[in-house]
Amino acid sequence: MTGHSTSGTPPRTDFHDKVTGRAEYITDVVLPGMLHGKILRSPIPHGLISSIDVSEALELPGVVAILTGADVQSFDWLWGPSIKDRPIIAIDRVRYVGEPVAVVAAIDERTAYDALELISVDYEDLPFVTDAEEALAEDAPVIHENPQPLKDFYFTGQARTVPGTNVFQDYRYEHGDVDQAFADAYRVFEDRFTFPMVFHYAMEPHCAVASFQDDALTVWSCGQSPTAVQKVLARIFRMPLSSVRIITPFVGGGFGGKASVKIDPLAAAIAWKAKRPVRLCLSISESMLTCRRLSAAIDIKTAVDQDGTIRGKSVRIVMNGGAYADTGPAVAVKAANRSIGPYNIPNLRLETLAVYTNTVPGAAFRSIGGPQAVWATESQMDIIAQELGIDPVELRYRNMLKVGERVRPDLRAIDVDMAEALGLASQTMSRVEAAQPESKLARGSAVGASDPGILAVSSAILRLKVDGSVLVMSNSVEIGQGIRDVLTGLAAEFLNQPRAMVTVMTPDTALAPFDWGTGASRSSLMMGMALEAAAKDILRQLEEFVTDCFGAQMEPLAFVPGGVAAGSRRWTFEDVLHAAYGIDSGEIVGIGRITPKSRGGALAEAPLFWETAAGMCGIAVDEDTGEVKVRNYVSVADVGHVLNRLSAEGQDEGAATQGLGHALYEELIYEDGQPINATMIDYHVPAMDDAPDSFSTVLVESGTGPGPNGARGMGEGAILPVAPAIANALANHYQIRIRDLPMTPEKVWRALLEKKVQ
Amino acid sequence: MEFQMEVTLPETPEHVWSVMVDVPRIASCIPGCENVQEVERLQSYSAVLKQKIGPFKLEVPAEVKVDGYEEPHFLKAHASGVDKLTRTKLSVVFDVTLTAVNQNETRFAISAELQVAGKLASLGYGLIKKKAEENFAEFEKRIRQQLEAI
After folding, report:
1. What is the CATH number of domain B2-148?
2. Long-range contacts of the stretch A392-399 (C-beta < 8 A, 24+)
3. Residue of B nearest to A120 (CA)
């Protein structure tokens, strides 16, 4: 609950190294003979490469190698996590401003950068399109002639492309009789909302160090999914998976922008060409040209009874997926599902089209597709409430699903009490406002429900040493969310050993077992379950040793600090291993493996759990400038069980604050095919001054999640309600309805002006 | 970036056309346009465009190709070039239409689409757009002076 003391939370295991600068990030990796790579990028949105001349650049002292499309054609050079549509490097065609065209490897960054100026590339311009709805037109330039969807490659299933068009995902779902519901309704509401392209802005830009040695490839990757990076590289370079090793040191933030695979193929290819290790670290502006959230136009039509009961709903979403599909097909599906909300919709039709355009590739971003969808759904809920004269919170209660009821028949029943969450948000906001008697703020609220796209596949290894120390080996990536600390705490708990005895290893595919990846709010609970299984595996082996060495025990064996006990009998780990091995050395290796069939198949149904959020804001508006300031914000999330309170609250606050970005400030703008604000000078992300004066996080511990002690995933939900809550506050208090994000001062000011004129 | 300009001039289309294809005169109307050479009349020209945009000094050798014309009413052309220092690519497609309003007046209309690609586009698109707008305004002013002086 809010206000819970964090004084009892031990400091996170990574904090000391991070604040003292000792934590190793990829940019700190130095290998013998390592070169530095710099990328020459396409300046045009769409065109054919007529010629590339690198001769002058190669003559620059210090330049060792230059990679172009001509070099990679002996490889399986087309790749993608969902659709094989992306070359390692542009071959004969560029599809967006920023697409890599050449990579220079030189003895230092300055030389590599200077060499870029000496590369001459001639292009033949092709017609381009940067707007998704224009890309759907019959005469729009087709950006990919024959994209090849992959089945069960990174996500289960496969994208439904529409050949001959720019549509790379055509997702449709329907239940009930939607048209009849519209025909019979008391009122039908039709609204359109738009959501901009926004950048992830992880503090650490994309980076990688790659090295080919002895027929093996090692990449220090910033990827959130090391095994996906390994798989893609193995396929591209036609190598056995066991010869491709991915090491993932601390990563300076991801938010989905480092999910699946990004620059690793390029880093590996230039290392192959240079025959030396190469460090490829992008600038933040280059990261802005690497991936971004899919923008969306959402048309939503809802049929209601006079009392506000929803009878039917149809949602059509057109998403701008950029030049390459990346994880966009999954984003499209999730956007559809997340547009439903935690409501009972007896007649439902969903349609999402994700479309290629000549823009930076769209990709997963914190609660994929969720903020786009919830922006529309929750804004419209308040529109309906206002039109029907019903309190907006009351309208939500009237339609809210109870625990055990289903959003769709084919999805897991809702496992969170959303009414309780919304009630807690109101209660908490009332307390905050009661402490600010002078304050007159506009209040708005929204809720969100998302179905995390979790593949229930994780595994971990625990190595219990003779001295009672423990190594945790997993491929869960520390991207700032605190997973290493969570794994430390869980390993200590499951083995009943002091935290100080536990060390979590850097993710390394050569050492740690397979895991799907770090994202979709999954790592704490999935890896937690794997650790629990690994601890049981160790206990099973200890039981065998104890029985063999000390005879069968009447009482069950259990971990105790420093060893094991059966009833009143106790043995140290050294006692057991010494007796078993004959010397006082050794270890016991436990492996924990979770699959959809684990726990009697209880993990097979999707989603693994529902991640939900209720948000409520109090805003002030400068009516002369239109500037919106969020003064108070309350965020409520049922996290099942808090594993680390400080980290949990930090993630919740971080998600909501990130939501302020697309709500009020952020938008990647294209003009004439050019991204014209893709620098941190022109692109504003929320700064400390933009954070709410009062931020209250309420963490509900229902204990109903599938993870350790009933934990469920978290860290994404809080981003969902922010934008609609602010828009609803504007509508409630100022009677203006903003439908296009971000709600910039100009838009708000113009809306206020228009209202006054009316 | 799209630009449109339209002005009614107190001359016949034939007179206006004669000024328009007089290379030194028309070049003098374009801010920063230097070293204009006629490679082939009404087919191909070369020039250097010099511009100061914010902190950047651009020097763009450009080739101008005439895509088609119908004397004295219509001309369509395109030009492109790359700045040596910033590698910024400028390309423009434009068409000029001369329409007789009456016996002594001509409507002179230009429609142009300017593309900017490269570092300058990502760093200073706003500056470029402002400069281009200023240049078109200046061009309009100068050509009006030229044509009114016929």
Report:
1. 3.30.530.20
2. A392/A445, A392/A728, A392/A732, A393/A422, A393/A426, A393/A445, A394/A308, A395/A308, A396/A343, A396/A422, A396/A447, A397/A422, A398/A307, A398/A308, A398/A309, A399/A308, A399/A309, A399/A310, A399/A343, A399/A344
3. B87
